[in-house]
Amino acid sequence: MLWVSWIVCVFVLIILEISTTSMFFFTCFAIGSLAAAVLAFFGAPNIAQYLVCATVSVLSLLIIRPIFQKVMKKSSDVRTNVDSLIGREAVVTQEIAPFKDGFVKVGGEVWLAQSDTIFNEGDIVKVESISGTKVKVTK
After folding, report:
1. CB–CB of 94/120 below 8 Å?
2. What is the pLDDT of residue 112?
3. Where does the pLDDT of residue 130 fall: very low under 50, low under 70, confident under 90, or very high at 90 and above?
4. Residue from 115, 22, 126 nearest 69 by CA
5. Fewer CB within 10 Å, N- or C-terminus of the chain?
6. Which residues contact 134 (CB under 8 A, 6 or more apart)?
7. Which pLDDT belongs to residue 92?
8. Residue of 63, 62, 66, 50 whose CA lies nearest to 9
9. Which of 31, 24, 26, 28 is CA-nearest to residue 13?
10. Which domains does the chain have, with CATH numbers?
């Protein structure tokens, strides 16, 4: 009946994973516990169960966790809202000079713009950064 204890351990580790921001840390130990539960179900000795749990857990940490982290990191790199405007091209709608703000149209919207160089109406510029309601543009 030791396999029931291993299954309880699996559920506890999964609950810990869900309730924390550990990024698949507890899941790796849950996988090791599940492997030990399978051995316990078929009557393997306790020492074998502990060794398999430890080995599978460590292998999961070394192999599976980095893969999951890489996949999760890729999916969280999406820029949204005004951050998505950074790096896009804009059209100058009113002259911009070093100490004189102008306007640009980017993403279908008109923004107050500043720059360290002079840009005339109709020039194509690139959005470098956004601060409040003002964009900084460069050539």
Report:
1. no
2. 92
3. confident
4. 22
5. N
6. 101, 111, 112, 113, 114
7. 93
8. 50
9. 26
10. 2-75 (no CATH), 81-138 (2.40.50.140)
Q: How confident is the model at residue 75 (pLDDT cuts 50, 70, 90)?
A: low
Q: What angle do CA 55, 60, 63 make, to 5 degrees?
A: 120
Give residue-wise pLDDT tens across range 8-54.
999 999 999 899 877 788 989 999 999 999 999 999 999 999 999 99
Q: How far apart are CA 66 and CA 68, in angstroms?
A: 5
